[in-house]
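I hope you will forgive my troubling you with a question about protein structure. Could you please explain, in whatever detail you think fit, how the structure tokens follow from the sequence? Thank you for your consideration; the sequence and its tokens are set out here.
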Amino acid sequence: MKKLVIASSNAGKLREIGAILGPLGFEILNHAALGIADAEEPHFTFLENALAKARHVAQIAGVPALADDSGICAPALDGEPGVHSARYAGEAASREARDARNNQKLIAALAPCADRRAYYYCAMVLVRHAADPQPLIGEGYWWGEICAQGRGRNGFGYDPHFFLPELGKTAAELDAEHKNRLSHRGQALRELVEKLRGFP
């Protein structure tokens, strides 16, 4: 079984990634459980941040590493929160408190806007080693709208306010399997897996 370190301490992301990669014969390791500190994310693009995280973890762990950088983007706000999605409203004592503050700030920012569309974006990167010159990259987009009233208990982050008009539900009202089929992260991971099949 091949070892693969996931460069994320987000429990929701780890569940979603593990559900897709686990059945493919990978032993999924969490970088935090290995005592590896989070990487810096100073870049202006999702892809650069994901690559920095993957290289950081691969360098220390000595095994292949996978990282993603993802967030929600609102066209009416020139793509914000974007790469700042996780800390859009600043730091907070817990992830739950941070999520609540981020959602409140996004809803307030969109309140005067007629265009309430938003999309989740994910850039996912896998490196075989820290200096891998040809990292595998997957991307995914998931379109919806921001609703003021949160609904659902599944998911995390902006999911309770990410409304899918074609389903009449928010992302937080979908079960894990349904969400993985549709989501930006599921799309990016499936694209990456297809590339991985033909990769030595």
